[in-house]
């Protein structure tokens, strides 16, 4: 390393250490943070002196704050690829590779989870300063850890309740069927690693709330002066088919919190990942990454927080498709005909039991399935008989439904068939009745968020945002 670069590097360590010392944390946690920052500097994370990691100025425990004005495109820090926690970079790479097929049957997470279990139990892990700081048990309060009664009370009907049930089943299954057999088979190589389901669940939460996935073949260029080049956009082809890689832990990048209106983003280069300013940032402002274009449902489920309406422009409400069938049963004059329609829609796999209809701020997302269901549900006896005889849509009808892809936007809904509007209106009303509170009650509660626990507050934001979307649907269907 050239002398001037070395000096600059040491200055940076000192500056960040100094910043870390100003933390509003207990001594032992600021000591852990100091060690982590030293580790980052030794590993050439090149943390800019314009930023500080710590609890001060962060909206949720650790975070990153600008200590100087930062221009758009400026590189805040980098993460060399050899510092990413992924099976390939760990000493258990060979073992995981051997069992890759069987370990990835249910999901892509198990190899990383095994790597983390191994590395957190390895006193000479190269990531020790990172793993000593994270996962911080206090900051990972995901709904998978709540009593089921609390999940129901706060999040019933939101979709988070269903996701939690699925997660708990999967955690138990993966632990018993994949993790335990792997650890037993390689007990010698894993130095008799002891695992239990509770620790495994905590590791799942760590991966849920802290991991990143890399979009396939995404590269970015950052010039010598730390400015991000605009030429780094994905090719059209990649944009069309974003294939996600397995998750990985990205030290330091995961100390940043998220908001939809973020001011930083992670870019994926060949040698290193870089956190760059997505817009200019003023001294004193918190630096927010983006965890993706994600709804409150996803934020609540995977990260344990949500944004207050209307801050999250990516918010959605997911209405189980069965609600539309319930609406049809209620409104249909001929119960037998409606039952036949529902049975046929299932038989033709247009409706699959767990399916949901997704509604965002503009209306139904990918409304093709919803359109097909509405058309069948609105058929008269004669139209239905013809449809059954033809065994589905004629070619001309199918083509028409493909062209008509914004038919169920909020802007277009007032112009659609009255029968469809009645079905959607009743569906929205039925879905609203599945939450444990009404929108009016939620809006009264919004005045009391200061005296609420984080669980109560973020659950309220999740419910209220979803209900707002349902009320927009109700208005559009009137
Ligand atoms: C990748 S970590 C970010 C670092 C984290 N604040 C810490 O102290 O370790 C993600 C977690 O940060 C918290 N978080 C991130 N953004 C947030 C926000 N806008 N509001 C509240 N909590 C947030 C949530 O607890 C989430 O699970």
Automatic annotation (TrEMBL):
PROSITE patterns: SET
Domain SET: start-end pairs: 41-292
Biased composition (Acidic residues): 225-241
GO cellular component: nucleus
Pfam families cross-referenced by the UniProt entry: Rubis-subs-bind, SET
Disordered: region residues: 1-21, 219-242
EC assignment: 2.1.1.-
UniProt-recorded Gene Ontology molecular function terms: protein-lysine N-methyltransferase activity
Gene Ontology BP annotations: methylation
InterPro entries, A to Z: N-lys_methylase_SETD6, Rubisco_LSMT_subst-bd, Rubisco_LSMT_subst-bd_sf, SET_dom, SET_dom_sf, SETD3_SETD6_MTase, SETD6_SET
Enzyme class: transferase
Family: Belongs to the class V-like SAM-binding methyltransferase superfamily. Histone-lysine methyltransferase family. SETD6 subfamily.
Protein name as annotated: N-lysine methyltransferase
Native source organism of the sequence: Biomphalaria glabrata (Bloodfluke planorb)
């Amino acid at each position: 390393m050239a002398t001037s670069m070395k000096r600059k590097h040491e200055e940076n360590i000192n500056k960040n250490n100094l910043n870390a010392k100003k933390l509003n944390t207990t001594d032992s946690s600021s000591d852990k943070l100091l060690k982590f920052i030293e580790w980052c500097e030794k590993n050439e994370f090149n943390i800019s002196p314009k930023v500080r990691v710590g609890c001060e100025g962060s909206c949720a425990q650790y975070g990153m704050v600008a200590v100087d004005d930062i221009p758009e495109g400026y590189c805040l820090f980098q993460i060399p690829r050899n510092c990413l926690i992924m099976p390939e970079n760990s000493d258990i790479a060979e073992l995981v590779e051997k069992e890759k097929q069987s370990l990835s049957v249910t999901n892509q997470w198990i190899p990383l989870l095994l790597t983390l279990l191994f590395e957190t139990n390895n006193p000479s892990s190269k990531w020790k300063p990172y793993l000593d700081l994270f996962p911080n048990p206090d900051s990972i309060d995901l709904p998978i850890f709540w009593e089921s009664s609390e999940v129901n009370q706060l999040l019933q009907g939101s979709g988070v309740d269903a996701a939690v049930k699925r997660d708990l089943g999967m955690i138990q299954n993966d632990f018993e069927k994949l993790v335990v057999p792997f650890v037993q088979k390689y007990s010698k190589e894993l130095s008799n690693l002891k695992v239990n389901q509770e620790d495994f669940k905590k590791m799942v939460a760590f991966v849920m709330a802290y991991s990143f996935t890399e979009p396939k073949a995404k590269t970015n260029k950052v010039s010598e002066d730390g400015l991000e080049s605009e030429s780094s956009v994905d090719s059209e082809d990649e944009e069309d088919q974003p294939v996600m890689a397995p998750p990985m832990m990205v030290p330091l990048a995961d100390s940043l919190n998220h908001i939809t209106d973020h001011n930083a983003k992670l870019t994926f280069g060949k040698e290193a990942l870089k956190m760059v300013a997505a817009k200019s940032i003023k001294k004193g402002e918190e630096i927010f990454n983006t965890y993706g274009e994600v709804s409150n449902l996803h934020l609540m489920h995977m990260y344990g927080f949500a944004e207050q309406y209307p801050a999250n422009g990516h918010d959605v409400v997911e209405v189980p498709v069965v609600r539309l069938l319930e609406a049809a049963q209620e409104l249909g004059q001929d119960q037998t005909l409606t039952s036949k329609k529902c049975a046929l829609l299932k038989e033709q796999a247009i409706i699959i039991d767990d399916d949901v209809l997704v509604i965002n701020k503009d209306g139904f997302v990918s409304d093709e399935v919803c359109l097909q269901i509405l058309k069948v549900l609105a058929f008269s006896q004669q139209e239905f008989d013809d449809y059954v005889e033809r065994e589905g849509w004629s070619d001309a009808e199918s083509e028409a439904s493909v062209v008509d892809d914004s038919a169920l936007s909020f802007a277009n809904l007032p112009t659609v068939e009255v029968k469809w509007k009645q079905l959607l209106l009743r569906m929205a009303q039925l879905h609203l009745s599945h939450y444990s509170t009404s929108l009016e009650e939620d809006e009264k509660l919004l005045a009391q968020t200061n005296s609420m626990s984080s669980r109560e507050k973020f659950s309220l934001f999740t419910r209220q945002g979803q209900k707002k979307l349902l009320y927009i649907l109700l208005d559009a269907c009137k």
